[in-house]
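Repro:
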Amino acid sequence: MSESPASGPPPQIPPTPAHRPATTLRQRLAELRGPSVAPHPLDARALAALAANPGCKRRALLDAAGVNKAVLATALGSPAAFGQSQFAFMRGNAFEARVKADGGTELLRLLHERLGGGSEAPQEARVPDLTAAGPEGRAARTALALREATATGGWTLLDHPMLALEVAGSPAYLEPDAVVVHPDGTWTVVEIKSFPMIDSSADAAKVGAAARQSAVYVLALERIAGKTDGARVDHRVLLVCPKDFSNLPTASVVDVRKQRAVTRRQLTRLTRIEDIAATLPEGTTFDPGCSPRELGEAVESVGAAYAPECLAACELAFHCREKSRARGAVEALGRGVRGELGGLTTVGAVLAAAAGKEGDPSDPTVAALRRAAALRAEALEGRAVCH
C-alpha cells in the first residue's frame, strides 16, 4: 500500500530570471542617470553631433539616459571648454523675440519673400497655444496643431513646437525655433540664429551647423506628415539672421536634402540603447553624486569612438582624448590617419613598424611607414652634414 503524499503548502521555488519582471528601458535609463537626477534634454544640436559619430556607444547611451555630460565631465576633472556665453544667449533671445513680434509678421514676410509660392503674402497667421504637461504632452499637442492647421488652410505659425524622434530605440524631444504651415499644407522649418549675415552671406561653418540641426527637425516633422493628409515637409529651411552689423532680420533659404539623407542614414546605424545598456556591469550609474573614481569606471565601461572632431561637439571630448592618448590609440590623430594605418591601432605599433622592429614587410602600410622613416632619416642626415 503506497503512502499518501504529505499535506501542507508546496515548497517555494525561487523565481528564475525568466520569471522575474523585466526592467523597462525607461527604468534602466533612470537608474543609469541617478534616481534623483532630472533628465537632461537631448536637443537637435546634440543629436546632429551624435549622428555625425554613430560609432560612439558612450555618447549614445549618455544622451539617451539624459545624463548632463557637462556636469559629468566636470566631476571627472575634464570640464568642457566650450559653450555659449550668457551675453550671446541673451542677445540671441532678444533677436528671436524681435523676429517673432506682432504675431510673427516680419517672419512671415521674410518667408514669403524668400520662398515665394502661388499664395498671397500673408497678412496674419494663427499662433496656436502649444502648452501641455511634459515633453510627451507638448509633442502630442504639436502634432495635433499641425494636423489642424493643415486641414484648416491659411497661414499658421507654431512658436517653439515640440517634436519627437526615435533615436536608437529611445525617444528624443526636439524644439525648433518655429514651424510655419502654408495654406497649401507645406510645413517649413525656421531657424533663427544670432550670427550676422553680411552682404547676404554668413559664415559657412555656422550655416552648415544650422543646416545639420534643421535636418533633424525635418526628419521629425516627416514622421507626423506621413500620418497627415495633404501635408508635405519642405526640404528648404528658412535661416533668419541679423542683417550686416545691425539687429534687423534678414533671411536666406538653405536646402537640407543632403544633410537630411546623411542624418537619416547615420541614425539608422546607431546601436540600440537596450543592447548597450545590457552589456554594463551591475550597479553602473552616472549619478554626479558618486566619487570621481566610480564615475570614471562607469564611463570607461562604455565604449567610445573618439576623434579630434569631438572637441567641437561633445562635453566629454577632453576626457576621452586623455584616455585615448594614454592608450596610444591612433584615433587621437584623426579618422583619416586611422583609416590609412589599417591594422595598426596604437602609436607604439606604428613606430615599431616604421623602425623595422615589428610588422610584415609585405604589408603595404608597413612598407610605406618604413619608406617614410628612411626618407626622414636621410633628410636629417643631410641636414647634419650641411651644418
